[in-house]
Each structure stands twice: as structure tokens, then as C-alpha cells.
Amino acid sequence: MARRAILGGVPVGEGLPVVVIGVLNVSPESFYPGSVHVDLDDLLASAERMVEGGAKLLDVGAMSTAPYLSTRIAEEEEAERLGRAVERLVNKLGVPISADTCRAVPAKAALEAGAAIINDVSGLSADPAVAELVARAGAGLILMASPRGGRRLPGGPLGSADNSPVSIAAALLSESLELARLAGIAEENIVVDPGIGFFRQSGQPWFEWDCEILARLGELQGLGRPICIGVSRKSFIGALLGQDDPGERLVGSLAAAAIAVVKGAHLIRTHDAAETSQAVRVAQAIAEWPA
Question: What is the pTM of this model?
Fold first, then answer.
């Protein structure tokens, strides 16, 4: 069937159960402190709870990518953090490990430590060497849409001439898919992510942008790739509910995740695997119920 992929041996996409990806961080600067596990034994224990709660993949980050925080660290430090974390988790849990990075040195460290997937929030635009590493390793790839180096945001390539959020996300993802193709990355190893929370300089309030992406998510199916969504505890939920503390955003996160499933998401990234797995199962059951 169309819109299917294999990520680290896990089949994802159309006609399959929605896959929950557990989010773990070894970066103290991450926006949600509840996701941070600097101690490697604590990291493993949290990862085990996520797998018990229903996560089929785990995504590990070693440098915060929140666009509203100044959190950039040296590439070598990110690589050291990421390599150690991935090595601690690989072969301990029975699920593939994804590395959340857009830079080649950390990506190489993660892949050498056993990561099966690279989650690139730049959509391969930040560092061309990442695409080469993924292709050489035969790894899975999550391509995310995000603003790129001050460039004017493009219009959509899916037959629409407007500059709506979904058209812009589609255009950026189309560019990323072409970069992946040119690097020799197999299409069946790729999923796409429209980048909830990353478009804060678009001229439109970011929470309105994110709501429109979710409301029109099905339009991204024209890209022919499974869709990954990360809404967990993000700032658009805080803006809608008046909650500055990410720790208060679980209920809003579950609501947004359920809506994303109904609108066509195939993978959901979350800090709260057990709760999200339950919400996803109910949402998918209702979405697929015969009319």
C-alpha cells in the first residue's frame, strides 16, 4: 500500500496501527525537564517504562531543538552525549533507537553506537553530510519541515499556489525528500513531520499555525510518505490553555495527539508513552470505525 515505511524494522503507515515514539533527552537545557535523564541508569529505567507503556520506537535527543531557546552546544559535546545514551539503550529494550540530531558528527556517533533511525529537524538542510551517513548506514529517516536559514518560506507544491501553513510545510518536505533521493536514501525508509512548534517567525501566531497544520494534516498525504506528529507538551498547547509550564500540558497533549490520529498521523512522538498509547488506540479505533 502507499504511504508505508520501515523504521528500524518497524512497519509504519497507512492501514497499520499508529506507532508511538517515546521521547527521551540527555540535554539538561530541553524545554520539558520531565523528559531529561542525564544519568544513564535513569535513562534506561525511563526507556523501559516507555516500552512497557506501548512505545515501539524511542527517540533520544542530546541538544534541545526548541526554536525559542538558545540551546546550541558544540557538535562534539552533542556527539558525546548522544553516543553514550544510544549505546546504553541499544539491545536492552527490544525496540529500535532513533537519534534526534541534524548534525553529522552526532549522527555518526549515534549510528556507530547502534541507532537505527535519524530524526533530522532540519529536513537534511542543516548538514548535507547527514544524508550521506543515513544512506551509507541504510538507516531510517524522519524528515521534519522547519524554517531554513532565513529563506523566505515557499508556497506549496501540491497543486496549491497559496502560502498556507500546510502548503509551506509540504513544499519544505518536498525539498527534503528530494535531498534524500539525491543522497540515495530509500524512500521506504522515510517518514515526514510537518514541524509542530517550529514556525515562530512566519508572520502568523505560531499556535494558529500549529492548529491549522493539525486541522489540515490529511493534505500532506499527497507527499506519499507516512506522517509523524510531535505535539507533546508543546507551546501551542500552553498558548491555547494559558499554561506556561510544560508539566501542566498532558491533557492538552493527549487531545492534540488524538486529533492528529483522526486527521491521518501514522506516528506520534510523546514524552508520555503509556497515556498517549491509550489515547492513540481509542482515536484510531473510532477513526477507522465503518461509517
Answer: 0.94
Place of cell 517567525: 201
CA distance 287 to 75: 42
Catalytic, 263? Answer: no
Please give the C-alpha separations between residue 264 and each of 163, 175, 186, in angstroms, as whole numbers.
22, 22, 23
CA 257 to chain CA mean position, Å: 13
Beta strands in 166-288 (DSSP E): 190-193, 228-230, 267-270
Residue 206 to residue 236: CA distance in whole angstroms: 7
Instruction: Give the pLDDT confidence score for residue 179 in this predicted structure.
Output: 97
| 122-156 confidence digits (pLDDT tens) | 999 999 999 999 999 999 999 999 988 655 666 54
Q: Which of 81, 234, 249, 263 is catalytic?
A: 234
Q: Is 269 a catalytic residue?
A: yes
Catalytic residue among 88, 108, 249, 269: 269
